[in-house]
Write a structure and sequence with these properties.
The complex is a heterodimer of chains A (233) and B (772). By secondary structure, chain A is α/β, with parallel strands linked by helices. Chain A has one domain: P-loop containing nucleotide triphosphate hydrolases (Rossmann fold, 3-Layer(aba) Sandwich). In chain A, 34% of the residues lie in helices and 27% in strands. Chain A is built from seven helices and ten strands. In chain A, the strands form two sheets. Chain A has a six-stranded mixed beta sheet with strand order 6-7-8-3-9-10, with helices on both faces. A four-stranded antiparallel beta sheet of chain A has the order 2-1-4-5, covered by helices on one side. In chain A, helix 6 links the parallel strand 7 and strand 8. With 772 residues, chain B is an alpha+beta fold. In chain B, helix 2 runs antiparallel to helix 10, helix 7 packs antiparallel against helix 21 and helix 8 packs antiparallel against helix 11. The longest helix of chain B is centred in the N-terminal third of the chain and has 44 residues. Chain B is elongated. The chains are: A alpha/beta (233), B alpha+beta (772).
């Protein structure tokens, strides 16, 4: 899905993030290349989600630099960060974060409409994604009426709507039952195999093994280790 | 209950913004209520108290001594409950060194009696000829050059020594002398002071008057003064404030109730999990309810107490100003108003919190805990679906759909905006009616040029410092003015202080000739004078004297009397002024010349050139400022503007509170929208849009309510102020203004929504999105 396979899509240099007295990230440097699927693992409070926020431009580092797809996030103001997220980032969350008042299709179309795409075009593109993800029959359903797995597929569709440079996933199977979790894993794997760069934050060893080609272990805000994986089917 | 208090206190701390909003709203509305109730309750209190203390005269009557004897008056007075008199009475002309023109003087042997017991507060009562006691309120400031104890004054050609100052709340006379001294002053009238068994209404007093004049010669009665007219005069100013203060107060309280209901239901909805935890800890349903009631009672009680204190300060200041002439020092809001407000307002606030608190009470622990984490079923779905397909920017269409997600909360917010717009509509209409009235009544801008001719001729030496008099005769000056290029109309006038028999206050009568119908006076009823013995007066003049159009009054001055029929009612403020014509002046003082010329000119005429041209012919004519619009309306308008700002703020706080609740509840949604690229400006626009739609609807609903309130309040104010407003002064809402008032609703809503929207737009979202 990205055009610059092999290039560094994400480049973190000596990133530090303090919350009061404690450091959530402490001098983290890493690169993620186009087409890679990277899993970040570690115990609670190790800094995984903070790393994701830095890459998504949801939060700013205390020091160090974060460059994503050529954009130095430290140089962007709030509006610049919003536009960056709109164009470059797709995010999926453990608890889906869908708008309850909108139908599944409108939730997905919303991401394109924010870029100025007309409602008709946005819905057309959303429908294509629904078909690709196998949930076309649920497009007019509201989030409260969807199963957990369906909700996460809708969230994935929304994340893919603007063809992001990188897909960020925060515990994407954490709130799902085993079967739904496996479906989401398959979906992420398929996406990576067609070129979508992935950054997963997870506790789930199985998800990491199945979807990621590289695992970065975090401990106390620092990279404790890094390993390449052979994906297991 | 020991566990309830710390939890309620913690809830207050956790919701600081809402706590402050409730406190401020309750404070503002309580202040308005206390001022309004305080004025209403005390508006005639000081007068009634002083009247009861002095056993004041309910009807003060003056009779022609040549038509009726003292014995006849005494015999006829049997139907009264109490009587004082007969007392001989004379209106004494004063020399020009005195501050007053004339002195209604009564011969009384002592200050006591069954009616009108005088308070001799300085010096002593007159006991022998050559002594005089003056009527003066103890709180009146003594002006420089005014009469002093043991000083002398010349009245009725006799030199009298001032031996004391007394005060009559009945206003029965300006001064008193011994009966022997009065005989030497050649009395022309006899005064009788009556109290009746029933005197609560004008009809009672009229019936009493008929009883005590039955059998007397028909033309013996030359003047009366009812205590109800004095009472109305005393209560006039506070009574003008009461109607709109009451309306604003109740509107404020209604908004407070809506906000409290909104805050508590918001707290219950947002705190489902919290309620579940409390119940799982062992809190009884009633304890849970008490926590939620306690949460709003704390700021409500504090706000109410502060509002009562502030209301007392404001009301006392207004009452003291209005009633200082009745010895109203230390006057304040009656204690029952304070107690009723202190109990009633928090009770009302608690009542408004009761429904949502009962909801918290009835939730089961499991239901409450699960409600806190389960996804909400979508609401207002159809609306959102249709909005998503529109061409509107997505941030705007999402915002427009937000009010439908919580229809109950939206309804409460809408009601607050409706009341805010109602207040603004009422205030704008009130302001327009009052300024229209003031412009018409004061004749501001009605006359282009006013020329002063100095003191009226024939009255002796002008006081030192007075402007030089005209050089030409009255007729010559008028001819000069009329012949000046550009002049279209000239009205000449002079005025005199005159007395109505039986009353103490001077009536300033302006006598006109020429084009007086061009002076901007609006005739409300009847017609202009067209012959001798006719006057035109104001509504207030009629009410304060219990007179009506067609009645005949006697005006006295310079030892002469003239009977004049009231032929018209004109629009002007004063109750102590009358308008008449030159033909009537000729009956009393034919030697007087005009001292004022009011001139109108063709549009575009250079007024300076007119003045120069006139002064070239008569250098003694001076240009003088025209009518002063006065300050009372300005005070009322300032109060209205202040109250409108307060209520607008209160309504905006209602919106503010709703947006705070909405954005807190939708924190996760807002975070998600930002995560997919919504800019802070778009978030702000979305949230503000959600409330501006409510504001627009609120504007449309609030305007008719405001107009209806205007229709009720303005006539009530006019009644309190003893004035008459023509119907056209109520027609103050042109279409353009109505459109602007719709904007008022939008502005209130947008102002209330903007700051929490901006805060929401700037919120850090990472944490919200990663945790449920």
């Amino acid at each position: 899905m990205t055009e610059d396979n092999g290039q560094a899509v994400v480049q973190l240099t000596a990133v530090r993030k303090d919350y009061g007295e404690s450091a959530a990230l402490d001098g983290v440097s890493l690169e993620i290349h186009a087409g890679e699927a990277v899993a970040v693992m570690g115990p609670s409070g190790s800094g995984k989600s903070t790393l994701l926020s830095m890459v998504a431009g949801l939060d700013r580092p205390t020091s160090g630099s974060v460059i994503v797809h050529g954009d130095d996030l430290g140089t962007l103001d709030e509006k610049g960060l919003a536009l960056f997220r709109r164009r470059r980032i797709g995010m999926i969350f453990q608890f889906f974060n869908l708008l309850d008042d909108l139908s599944a299709l409108d939730n997905v179309a919303l991401a394109a409409q924010l870029t100025g795409t007309s409602a008709a075009h946005a819905r057309k593109r959303a429908l294509e994604l629904f078909e690709e993800l196998g949930i076309a029959g649920r497009r007019n359903t509201y989030p409260a009426q969807l199963s957990g797995g369906e909700r996460q597929r809708v969230a994935v569709a929304r994340a893919l709507m603007n063809r992001p440079a990188i897909l960020l996933a925060d515990e994407p199977t954490g709130a799902l039952d085993t079967r739904a979790g496996e479906q989401v894993m398959d979906l992420l794997l398929d996406l990576n195999q067609i070129g979508q760069t992935l950054l997963l934050v997870t506790h789930d060893q199985q998800l990491a093994t199945r979807c990621a080609s590289r695992v970065i272990d975090f401990l106390d805000g620092q990279i404790a280790g890094e390993r390449s994986l052979e994906r297991t089917p | 209950m020991s566990a309830v208090w710390p939890v309620a206190r913690a809830a207050v701390r956790r919701r600081r913004v809402q706590t402050v909003v409730i406190g401020v709203v309750v404070l503002l509305s309580t202040t308005m209520i206390v001022v309004a109730l305080g004025l209403l309750a005390a508006s005639s209190g000081p007068f009634d108290h002083a009247y009861a203390k002095q056993s004041g005269s309910q009807l003060t009557a003056s009779y022609d001594r040549s038509k009726v004897t003292d014995a006849q008056l005494t015999a006829a007075a049997r139907s009264a409950a109490a009587v004082a008199g007969p007392f001989a009475q004379a209106t004494l002309e004063l020399d020009r060194t005195q501050l007053m023109d004339s002195l209604v003087t009564v011969g009384r042997a002592d200050p006591g009696g069954a009616v009108d017991r005088l308070n001799v507060w300085k010096g002593r009562w007159a006991t022998k000829p050559g002594e005089i006691v003056l009527n003066r309120n103890p709180v009146d400031k003594e002006g420089r050059g005014g009469p002093e104890l043991n000083g002398t004054m010349t009245a009725g050609g006799q030199t009298l020594t001032i031996v004391g100052f007394a005060y009559s709340v009945s206003q029965s006379a300006d001064a008193w002398v011994t009966p022997e001294q009065m005989n030497a002053l050649h009395p022309t009238a006899t005064q009788m002071l009556y109290r009746f068994a029933h005197a609560a209404t004008n009809a009672d007093v009229t019936a009493g008057q008929q009883g005590v004049t039955a059998g007397l010669p028909s033309d013996a009665l030359i003047g009366t003064q009812s205590y109800l007219a004095l009472r109305a005069m005393a209560a006039g100013e506070p009574n003008t404030f009461v109607p709109f203060l009451m309306v604003f107060g109740w509107l404020g309280l209604a908004v407070a109730v809506l906000i409290v209901a909104n805050v508590v239901s918001g707290a219950v909805v947002a705190g489902f999990k919290h309620i579940g935890v409390l119940k799982s800890l062992g809190f009884t349903p009633t304890q849970v309810m008490t926590v939620y009631l306690g949460m709003i009672s704390i700021p409500a009680v504090v706000g109410c107490a502060a509002g009562v204190a502030l209301g007392n300060v404001l009301a006392t200041s207004l009452l003291t100003r209005a009633f200082e002439n009745y010895g109203a020092g230390g006057l304040g809001v009656p204690i029952w108003v304070d107690i009723a407000t202190l109990l009633g307002v928090p009770a009302l606030v608690a009542l408004s919190a009761l429904l949502p608190a009962l909801r918290a009470r009835s939730l089961s622990a499991a239901q409450a805990i699960s409600a806190g984490s389960a996804p909400r079923a979508g609401r207002g779905l159809r609306v959102q679906r249709s909005l998503s397909g529109t061409r509107l920017p997505r941030a705007v269409s999402l915002g427009l759909g937000m009010p439908f997600a919580r229809p109950g909360r939206t309804a409460l917010t809408l009601a607050a905006v409706v009341l805010g717009v109602t207040s603004v509509t009422l205030a704008v209409g009130l302001g327009k009616s009052l300024t229209t009235y003031q412009t018409a009544a004061s004749r501001a801008d009605a006359v282009d040029l006013t020329m002063f001719a100095g003191q009226s001729g024939g009255e002796g030496e002008a006081p030192p410092g007075a402007p030089p008099g005209a050089k030409l005769t009255d007729a010559e000056d008028e001819a000069v003015l009329r012949a000046t290029p550009g002049v279209t109309s000239v009205a000449a006038s002079t005025d005199m202080g005159m007395r109505l028999p039986g009353t103490r206050t001077d009536v300033r009568v302006s006598f006109y000739r020429g084009d007086f119908d061009q002076l901007g006076y609006r005739i409300l009823a009847g017609r202009w004078f067209d012959g001798p013995g006719q006057v035109v007066v104001s509504e207030r003049f009629l009410r304060q004297r219990g007179l009506a159009l067609g009645d005949t009054i006697t005006l006295q001055s310079r030892g002469k009397s003239v009977r004049a029929q009231i032929v018209g009612k004109a629009m002007y403020n004063s109750g102590d002024e009358a308008l008449s014509n030159w033909a009537t002046l000729a009956l009393i003082a034919p030697e007087l010349r005009a001292n004022l010329y009011e001139v109108n000119v063709k549009p575009g005429t250079d007024l300076d050139a007119v003045v120069k041209a006139v002064q070239a012919k008569d250098s003694g004519l001076e240009e003088t400022p025209g009518q002063d619009p006065g300050t009372f309306v300005a005070v009322v308008l300032a109060t209205v503007v202040l109250l409108t700002l307060m209520l607008g703020t209160v309504a905006a706080l209602g919106v503010f509170n709703t947006v705070v609740l909405n954005t807190r509840e939708r924190r996760r949604d807002l975070g998600m929208l930002k995560s997919i690229g919504m800019t802070p400006a778009q978030v702000t626009a979305m949230v503000v849009t959600s409330m501006t739609a409510v504001g627009a609807v609120g504007g449309l609903l609030g305007i008719p309510l405001g107009i209806a309130a205007h229709r009720l309040v303005v006539p009530a104010m006019a009644n309190g102020a003893q004035i008459e407003l023509p119907d056209f002064m109520l027609e103050v809402y042109p279409a353009g203004l109505l459109a602007l008032l719709v904007v008022a609703g939008i502005v209130i809503a947008a102002a209330g929504a903007y700051f929490p929207a901006r805060t929401a737009a700037r919120a850090t979202i990472a944490e919200v999105l990663h945790n449920e």
